[in-house]
Prior knowledge:
Elements: H1 2-15, H2 21-28, H3 32-57, H4 63-76, H5 83-93, H6 100-131, H7 133-162, H8 165-168, H9 176-203, H10 212-228, H11 238-247, H12 253-287, H13 290-296
Helix pairs in contact: 1-11, 1-12, 3-4, 3-6, 3-9, 3-12, 4-5, 4-12, 5-6, 6-7, 6-9, 6-10, 7-9, 9-10, 9-12, 10-11, 11-12
Amino acid sequence: MVLTLSAAFLIRSFTTEDAHITTALTRLGPYLPPALAAALTGLWLTALSWREPLQSLSAPLTRPQAVRVFAAGQLGKYVPGVMWSIVLQSRLTAASGITVLHLTAAFGAYAAVSLSTGAVVGLPALADHAYGPTAAALTAVLAPLALCLLSPLLTIAVRLFRAVPALARRLAPVPGPVLRRAVWLCALSWAVTGVHLWLLAVALGADPLAAVLPCVAGFAVATSLASVVVVVPDGLGVREALLAVSLASVLPAPQAALAAAGSRLVLAAADVLAFGYGTLAARRVSLTPVSLRERKESPC
């Protein structure tokens, strides 16, 4: 039902006659490079957030290694099901002693961090939609306090879930400071990644100030909700429909749908480029003589 409604909304938006749609496509061009840069920066921060629980449970990962392995998981998300990402990542980390159990436990911790921080960052958009600008501003002010409370709450949640025998082997306790770093890195990644959608919306005629909330907070909400729909690759269609609804307050429906579709293309390009960068960086490090590597590498 959700998928049908999402597809219907997008098709209707794109097929609506709009004499300015060609002009809108042309206006997007200059904004695509900075939007891609924002998406890549957000992906890098997300990879560092994902790295925190993983290396606390297994072995240290350098930043290029973390980006490469995480980006491989990002490519795996385009296949229905959540396990493909872990399968791809386990192939890349086999030589470093990081096992599937490590990746599964880290995935559980990171998923909790990602969804909870996405909810906090996106809450102002929901408050604005339900109660208006005053509620949105109050929610935004209280967001840092909520982020401070997330790591101890997640620690308690892991302990409770580990009491279930079926989950005990799949979840591992992550130290509080590690969770705290992961939470703040992930929250920052949501905000930075949302900038790419803001740039696309502004390019299509949205007011720069009015577009901040539906783009940054709306992106966090839409992506978090779409990630729960595991029957389609990366919430394809669901996220675009939710983004288009969020952007409808600052853009006409056809331009809102175009911005949502452009967001999908920009993020997919960022996934591919990040994996390419991680692969080249890891190969360069592996080919560097040990004596030179020890002088050049800084501890991560």
